[in-house]
Amino acid sequence: MVISVFDFVIILFTGLAMTRLFLFSGNIYFGELTRTNRIPFMMSQILLPFFIGTLIILLIKIPKVLPLEILVDSSMLLLLLPATIRASVVHDMMFEEGTKRIRIFWILLFITGVLLFLFRTVFGIGIKF
């Protein structure tokens, strides 16, 4: 029990320490991260993907969802919630000037799809020596 409590405290403090790193990733989209766009950024880039991804994974495993999986997924909230809450009190961050343009790199998306297909096909058949 002591080890579990110690681990949860470590996860909480790691989430608090990583807040600035999460916010610094906002330089991809914004020239500055202010009070008005900080919390929506954290919600859309950190919490929402976590909830949607966890929900999709649980729906895929729905006949055999283990309590351990639910516990591990819920423990991730101990990392993400403190970072999101602390983001509201962090100072404004200024990044380089200029407009940001978000692009999709189609060639990388294609390569990823091909590699995923090959990975699933090869390991679906099995590797025999």
What does this structure look like?
This protein has helices spanning about 1-15, 20-25, 35-60, 65-85, 105-125, and strands spanning about 30-35, 95. With about 130 residues, it is mostly helical. The chain has one domain (about 1-105). A two-stranded antiparallel sheet has the order 1-2. The mean pLDDT is about 80.
Order of helices and strands: HHEHHEH
Strand content: under 5%
> What's the overall average pLDDT, rounded?
82
Choose one word for the global shape.
flat
**What is the helix content?**
55-70%
The number of E-state strands comes to: 2
Radius of gyration: 19 Å
Question: What's the helix count?
Answer: 5
Question: What are the segments in which pLDDT stays under 50 over at least 5 consecutive residues?
Answer: none
Helix and strand content put the structural class at mainly alpha
Strand arrangement within the widest β-sheet reads 1-2
For the biggest sheet, the summary is: 2 strands, antiparallel
| Tally of distinct domains | 1
N-C termini distance? 44 Å
What keywords describe this structure?
mainly alpha, 5 helices, single chain, 2 strands, two-stranded antiparallel ribbon, 68% helix, 129 residues
Helix and strand layout, with pairings?
Elements: H1 2-17, H2 19-24, E1 32-33, H3 35-60, H4 67-86, E2 93-94, H5 106-125
Helix pairs in contact: 1-4, 3-4
